Write the C-alpha cells for this entry.
Amino acid sequence: MSTQNIDNYSSSITPIDRAGITELVVQRIKDLLARGELKAGSRLPPERELAELLNISRPSLRTALKALSVMGIIRAKPGAGTYIAESLPEIFAEPMHFMTLINNTSVEELFEARRIIEAGLAELAAERASVEDIQALTTEIEGMRAAIDDPETFLKHDVGFHRVMAHAANNKLMSGVMDTIAQLLYHIRRQSITNASSLNEAIEWHHKILEAIRKHDSKRAKDMLAGHLRAAQESWARENRAEIEGRKEEKTRKREGREGKEGDRLKR
C-alpha cells in the first residue's frame, strides 16, 4: 500500500483502547463505511499497518478480523489481501441462517417470506427493467428450455432468471434479502425440480413473469411471481406431505402439553 493511502487511513482511524477491542474495531470499520472511505470490495490495509494505525497488537487485530469474517463483512483472498464484502448475501447469509435455526423456522415460512419479498421485486422490475435486462431474462429462459433433461443445469438458469429480475428491480437491500432466502431454500428447490412436467411448468411460469415485465405490467408481474412461488411450494408440499403432517402433530402435542400444565397449575 502506498504511503499516500496509509496517510489517508491514518487521518480517519484513531487508536482504540484495550477494552472491548473486537467491538471497537468493528465500530471503526462501520465508521469508515459510513463516511465512504471504505466501500464494497475495498481492500483493507495490510495487517501490520492496520494494527499500527489502531494501536493494538496483531493477535488482537486478528481476533477482530476473524469476527468480521464470520459476520461476512470481510473476506480474505489468498495472496491478495483482505477485502470488504462485495454483496449483501455475503453479509446476510450466516445471521439469517442462525435466525432460522434459533426460531426453528419452517420451510413454509421461508417460502412465504420469499414470495412476499420477491413479488415486490417483480413489481419493481416491471417498472424499471431495461432492454438489456429483458434480454438477459429471455436468455435464462432459453437456457432452461435447453436444459429440460438436465435438472442441475436447469436450476442454475432458474436461479439466474431470479437474480437478473432482482437486478432489474434496482433495490439492493431487497435483492440481498431475497437472494439469501433463496439460498436457504436451494436444496428444497433441487428436491422439487425432478421431472419434466415440473420443469415445463416452471418454464411457463417464468415466461408469464417475463411477458409481464416486458409489457411493464407491474401488477401482473407481481401476481405471476407470487403464483409461481406458490406453485413451487405446493409441489414441495405434495412430495413431503408425511413430514409436514408429522410436524403439525408434534406442534399440536406440545401446545396441548403446555395447556395441560397451565390447567394443572390453575387448579392448585
About this structure: The chain has a mean pLDDT of 83. The chain is about 75% helix and 5% strand. Strands lie at 74-77, 81-84. The domain at 3-86 is CATH 1.10.10.10 (Arc Repressor Mutant, subunit A).
